[in-house]
Every structure is written in C-alpha cells, then in structure tokens.
Amino acid sequence: MTRNVGRGRMAGHVRAGAASESDTPDAPPRVVVITGFMGAGKSTVARELGRRLSCLVIDLDDLITGRAGRTPRELIDEEGETHFRELETDALREAMTGDGSVVVATGGGAWAHARNRSLADARGCLTVWLDAPFELCWRRITNAPGTRPLARDETQARRLFDERRATYSLARLRVEVRDDTTPETLSAAIADALEIDGSTHE
C-alpha cells in the first residue's frame, strides 16, 4: 500500500559526501528508487537525497547514455522503445545490486513495466512516487525541448500521464510535488520515511 506524504542529469554514478551511518558495518544498505512522470523532478530530488544520505546516486537515463553512446531519445528513434526498455531494465538491475546504499532515479516510463517493479520488490527498495500535477510536468518538459521522446506534444504527454498514474501509485511512498515544493523538502520527506520503514533494510 502506498504511504502518502503531503505538500511538501548526472553522469551515471555520483557519490555525495563522506560515508554515512547507512554505510557502516552496523547498518544495512538502503536502496531508494524514485519514480514519477517526466518533469516531476526525479533526478534533482535523487541528487539532493543522495547528499542528505551521503550515498551513491544513479540516474538510469545517464547510465544508459554513457554505455550506449546515445541518449534515450536517440535509442528509441533508432532502435525502438522495446530495445530501450530492455537496456533500462538491465541498468536498473545493476544499479540495485551493489553493496552500499544507493538512490536510483528512473526514467518516466520505467515503473510502468512489471519486471522493473518486481526487481525493486525483490531488492526490498523504498519506492517513491513523486506525484506532480500534469501542468507542472508539462511546463518543465517544454523548457527542455527535444529531450522527452515520448512526449513530443501535449496531447501525447497527457495521455501517458493519465495511463501511468495507476502504476505510479504502486510505489510504497507517494510524495506530493507542487510548484513551490523544493527538492530539499521532498528529500527530507523521503529520508524521514526511511527512518521509520524498517522493511527497506535488508
């Protein structure tokens, strides 16, 4: 069941700060997977949460781009979405198999695929849905034209947004995102949830 929290691109891997308590021998590693629609702020919040927890941050899109030498848009245009989704699942699996704590920022469509949700469940991750309104997401999408291969116009983006909400709601934690919600506030809410969610620890 999703727990709600009210108002509240990196180059592959980023380690933020010194080793934290979560990386000591006495504390098991924690894995946080952040999902949500395009423009919800997943990468930005992941970076801030990584700084707060002093742990590794992995942006799946950046990891895939670094390996394939092509952006998600280029991969989808040239190889098709199915091929891209296979690369995405491989990247997610690797991101969650390290020994230390990690925050993973997924692409907007990753959580829509059951195999990726199963990977997160098997790893005991805290899965977080950044629930941002469509209008906010679309404004951010239009501020970065050409980077969202599956949201080339507002009608297409709105359809995807509506379709994906049901699967986003399967995340264990829902964090509401508003125009005035800062990444610091969002990351603090997620960190607080980690403290009380013992099931995220192995």
Q: In words, what does this structure look like?
A:
- The chain has about 200 residues and is α/β, with parallel strands linked by helices.
- Helices cover about 45% and strands about 15% of the residues.
- The chain has eight helices and seven strands.
- Strands 1-7-6-3-5-4-2 form a seven-stranded mixed β-sheet.
- Helix 1 (about 40-55) crosses helix 8, helix 2 crosses helix 4 and helix 3 packs across helix 4 (about 80-95).
- The two termini are about 20 Å apart.
- Residues about 5-25 and about 200 have low confidence and may be disordered.
Rg computed from alpha carbons, rounded to a whole number of angstroms = 16 Å
- The coarse silhouette is globular
Instruction: Give, in order, the helices and strands.
Output: EEEHEHHHEHEHHEH
Uncertain ranges? 6-26, 198-202
* Assembly category: single chain
Main sheet summary: 7 strands, mixed
